[in-house]
Amino acid sequence: MLKLEGINKIFNEGTPDEKIALDNINLHLAPGDFVTIIGSNGAGKSTMMNMISGALNPDFGAVIIDGKEVTKLPEYKRSHLIGRVFQDPMAGTAPSMTIEENLAIAYSRNAKRGLRKGVNSKRRDFFRSSLEKLGLGLENRFNAKVGLLSGGERQALSLLMATFTKPAILLLDEHTAALDPSRAELITRLTKQLVEEGNLTTLMVTHNMQQAIDLGNRLIMMDKGQIILSIDEKKKQHLTIPDLMAEFENIRGEKMNSDRALLG
Amino acid sequence: MFTAMFGSVEQGIIYAIMALGVYLTFRVLDFPDLTVDGSFVTGAATAAMMIVLGYNPILATLTALVAGFIAGCMTGLLHTKGKINPLLSGILMMIALYSINLRIMGLSDEKAIVKPNIPLMNSDTIFSQFQSFWGNIGIDQALTNFIKNTLGFQTAPSTWGTILIVLILTLIIKGIVDWFLKTEVGLAIRATGDNKRMIRSFSANTDGLIVLGLGISNALVALSGALIAQYSKFADANMGIGMIVIGLASVIVGEAIFGTKTIFRTTLAVVAGAIIYRIIYAVALRIDWLDTSDMKLITAVIVILALVIPQVVEKRREKIRKDKRRIQRLEQQGELTQGGNHLA
């Protein structure tokens, strides 16, 4: 479903600030895979997500989604294949537009936008039934401006908007990190539910090791622009945080140096 | 007085089309587009030039609309493809249009390359054409009699046809803008002004949408310019100076008075704002010690007041609210201590 082949990226090449962001990344996701990604700050997790979404282009290497090479396609052209939820709850929705208008925008992702009405009664029914799944009562606030929603509600809406058109790939970039623990728990639960329902091929970046272990069928660990550890479905079922710490020490010969990774 | 006000309302309704264009860029796209000063004249110049050359006024007006659309798209391309700052893109297009407008007007005269103005005194316009149909119906007579005899005014407007046709036209355009902003493309344009990152992640080409939005906006501005030229029977290279500020004044005054709850209401507010602005303008002109040349200053003052007064009002309201709460709290405490004394 998703293939990354030999992706390389260097920021500020040729200057003293030169930084190797991605160093020969190879990754292959089968349809329905749900891969969680962990790693300390600057490991290249977000850069990799941006490569897949098209917000950044690799120096060389190929991105293949659903059998199509999309490496050179601009972000807006490949985003009909990709659903995305950002870390910032403000980033995934248009604040001055209503809930139903936001959903209509997400709904038009797959088709060419024309002069049809954005919200008609048929779509409204679909939006309503989709919102009911969130269980937040948003289906009764169709005409509320999204800017008035709380961070958790906005993130739940972003998640729904990213998933309900069944994208080929779902990218979740620390999408619970900016929320308080109870809201984060809610979004985690919704993520699980929506991904399972749609059988979506998913990549999720997280700083929370427990979350990375609880969710998904595969796990990868990144460090200094490389994928240093890849854990398959079988091994992941019995994985614990100390296991992960030990693996890291084993590979890098140093202690894992991230309180955030530990505490989540 | 009544007749002067009547003229202001007529003009205000025509300028409302320009204000709707400014609303599209300034509010919806969040793009401060200064092309307006140029594209307004482009519309006027194109329509006037074609009318002088003998084309049908309706065709001339529609061509003006297209000319404005192209001008707006150029500004959009400067910004999106040329990566030039929005304000600067508009300014560049505005001064480029100044020369282009002189050349467009020059097309009306075989002997000249450029012309600074085109008079339309004896030409057919949309308004004169409509008048020849409207004048025969007899509604004008009836209304004039009503105003002179029943309401007791000395003078009455010479015709009601003009205000009727501009009102219908403006309301149709308002309706189209309302409808457009609810279509899939319209929603995407609004989201572009609201959150570019989000709309890109939903497969919308923000560059294309910005170009389209600026095109539509300047098409409306040019249409307004074409109508004003036909209404006042001349086109002039300098008639667009300060137009963006007048557009902003209309948007801001309208929004401040009528609110922005829904799109329907906001566009209505913008139209009303344009008319109110013209009435203020007319009243200001009647003040003895003010000169016509002071109007730009007055426009600036109107915009400043429309921006500042709502803030002051809101601050005052807040202060009153807080004072009220403080007094309530004091009274409660007073009652408590009194109660306490009783017990003691």
Question: What are the key terms here?
Answer:
heterodimer, A: alpha/beta, Rossmann fold, 10 strands, 36% helix, globular, B: 344 residues, mainly alpha, ABC transporter involved in vitamin B12 uptake, BtuC, 2 domains, 13 helices
Query: Roughly how much helix do the residues of chain B carry, as a percent range?
Result: over 70%
Which oligomerization state do the chains in this entry correspond to?
heterodimer
Unreliable segments of 5+ consecutive residues of chain A: none
Main interface by residue count: A-B, 36 and 22 residues
If strands are numbered along the chain, what order do they take across the biggest sheet of chain A? 6-7-8-3-9-10
- CATH-assigned fold name of the largest domain in chain B: ABC transporter involved in vitamin B12 uptake, BtuC
Give the CATH class of the largest domain in chain B: Mainly Alpha
Return the string of H and E elements of chain A.
EEEHEEHEHHHEHEHEEHHH
Q: What would CATH call the homologous superfamily of chain A? A: P-loop containing nucleotide triphosphate hydrolases
What CATH architecture label of the largest domain in chain B applies?
A: Orthogonal Bundle
Main beta-sheet annotation of chain A? 6 strands, mixed
Mean pLDDT score of chain A, rounded?
Answer: 89
Can you tell me the overall shape of chain A?
globular
General form of chain B = globular
Fill in the CATH topology of chain A.
Rossmann fold
The N- to C-terminal Cα distance of chain B equals: 74 Å
Distance between the termini of chain A: 30 Å
Which structural class should the secondary elements of chain B be placed in? Answer: mainly alpha
Q: What is the helix content of chain A?
A: 25-40%
Q: How many strand elements of chain A?
A: 10
Structural class determined from secondary elements of chain A: alpha/beta
